[in-house]
Amino acid sequence: MRADIHNHAVPEAVVEFYDREPVFGIEVVGERQLKGGPEGDYELQPRFYDAAAKVQDLKRHGLDTAVMSVDPPFFHYDVDPDAGTALAELINDGLRAMASAQPDHLNWMATVPLQAPERAASVLRDAHTDGCVGVEIGTSTGSRFLDDPVFEPFWAEAEALEIPVMLHPAYQHPHPGFDSFHLTNVIGNMLETTIAIERLIMSGTLDRHPGVNIVIVHSGGYVPFQHGRLRHARSVRPFEESAPRDPADYFGQVRFDCLTHDRKALRFLIDQVGEENVLMGTDLPCDMATPEPWSELVAVAGEEVAARIAGPNIAELYGLKSPVSESR
C-alpha cells in the first residue's frame, strides 16, 4: 500500500447546491467554475470529483490509495447551522459515493458543521455509520479556537468513535502583511496549525481526550521545528508552568503528514517526531501539492521507511486494508 491521507475532493453535487443556495455567496459560472469563495475563483477539475480520475492521479504520483477529505474552502463555518449541516451532509454523501466507486483505492473523511458542535457530533456519528474512516476539521472556526469548551461534544464523540481527526487550516486570523504574495497560505497555514495544536495541548484538551488521534498537515506547521522553544517556555513563563506535559510527549497522539517541499526539512521531521508518527500526505490535486511525493520520500527516508510511512502507519491509524499496488 502507498496511501495518501492529505488528498482533497469536492463532490460534483456541491456545484448544484451552491447554485440554488445563495446563503453561501458562491456564484457558479459555466459548469464547474466557482466565484466568490474565500480563496477566490475555484475551478473543479475531474481529479476533484471523478473517482476514476482521482485514482489515475494517484497512480501518476506513485501512490495507489487515498483517504479523501473535502478542500477547506468548502467548510463554510460562517453560515448558519442549518445551511452548514446541509452542506456537510451533501459533501459526506458525495465522498462516500466516490469511495464506493473505487473501493480498492479510495476512502473518505467526514466534514462536519463545526459552528454547531452538537450537530457536528451528530453528523460525525452518521458519517461513521456510512463508512468514513476519519474526520477533517479546520484549525479554528474563525471565531473560536478548537480548545474552546463549546467543542467538547465534538471531541467526546470523536473519542467515542475512535476516529482520527485531521486538522487543516482554513480560517485565517488577521495577520498584517499576509495580504500579498500568497503568504496567507505559505506562512499563514503553518501558523494556524501551530496555534491550534499548541492550544489543544496547553489547554489540556488532549489530556481530557487521550483516545483522540490528531493528524496535522503541512508537516505540522512550525511544531516540529520550534519544539525546543515551546518546551523552553514551560520553564520560564508562569502561564506555561501548568502545561500538562512537554509538547513532544504528545507525538504519537499527534501525527504529521510529510508535506515539506524540502528534503532537509523532511529528514528533520522524521528524525524529530519519529518515523512511526509520519504519514504520507500530498495535498493533491491542489497546486500546492508535492509534485513527486513517493520518489521524494524514498530519496530522503529510503524505500523501507518510506513504505512504512505510506503503508502501515496509515493502515493502522485509519483501519485500511492493503490493496494490490498497481503503481509499482
Protein architecture, described:
It is a single chain. By secondary structure, this protein is α/β, with parallel strands linked by helices. The protein has one domain: TIM Barrel (Alpha-Beta Barrel). The protein has helices at 13-20, 46-49, 51-60, 81-101, 117-129, 152-161, 183-202, 205-208, 227-236, 263-273, 293-301, 303-310, 312-318, and strands at 3-9, 27-29, 33-37, 40-43, 65-70, 106-110, 134-138, 165-168, 214-216, 254-257, 278-279. Residues 4-320 form the Amidohydrolase-related domain. It comes from Mycolicibacterium agri (Mycobacterium agri). Keywords: Lyase. GO terms for molecular function: carboxy-lyase activity; hydrolase activity.
Detail the topology: elements first, then pairings.
Blueprint: E1 3-9, H1 13-20, E2 27-29, E3 33-37, E4 40-43, H2 46-49, H3 51-60, E5 65-70, H4 81-101, E6 106-110, H5 117-129, E7 134-138, H6 152-161, E8 165-168, H7 183-202, H8 205-208, E9 214-216, H9 227-236, E10 254-257, H10 263-273, E11 278-279, H11 293-301, H12 303-310, H13 312-318
Parallel strand pairs: 1-5, 5-6, 6-7, 7-8, 8-9, 9-10, 10-11
Antiparallel strand pairs: 2-3, 3-4
Helix pairs in contact: 4-5, 5-6, 10-11, 11-12
